[in-house]
């Protein structure tokens, strides 16, 4: 059975710091062709941010993604 390490070996990993804006995250995810990204608080994993988060927590609630 393959492990996650086996499947991701040699691939670039992506992450953003928790202080980045939603707009920055959306643009970066689009540029990298990914649908979710780990959110780091320094060296610690704080969360995972996804396209669904953008739709339900920003767009549907009429928030400004740049803030």
Report a brief summary of the structure.
The chain is of the alpha+beta class and 67 residues long.
Secondary structure topology:
Elements: H1 4-8, E1 16-17, H2 22-32, E2 36-41, E3 44-50, H3 51-59
Quick tags:
67 residues; alpha+beta; 3-stranded mixed β-sheet; 3 helices; elongated
Give your account of this protein's structure.
Helices cover 37% and strands 22% of the residues. It has 67 residues and is α+β, with helices and mostly antiparallel strands. The model has no long low-confidence stretch (mean pLDDT 94).
Summarize the main sheet. 3 strands, mixed
Number of strands: 3
Task: Please count the helical segments.
Answer: 3
Distance linking N and C termini? 44 Å
Radius of gyration: 13 Å
Shape: elongated
Helix fraction by DSSP (H/I, runs of at least 4):
25-40%
């Amino acid at each position: 059975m393959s492990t996650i390490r086996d499947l991701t070996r040699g691939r670039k990993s992506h992450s953003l710091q928790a202080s980045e804006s939603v707009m920055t995250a959306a643009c970066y995810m689009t540029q990298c062709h990914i649908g979710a990204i780990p959110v780091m608080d320094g060296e610690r994993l704080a969360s995972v941010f996804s396209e669904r988060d953008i739709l339900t927590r920003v767009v549907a609630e009429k928030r400004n993604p740049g803030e």
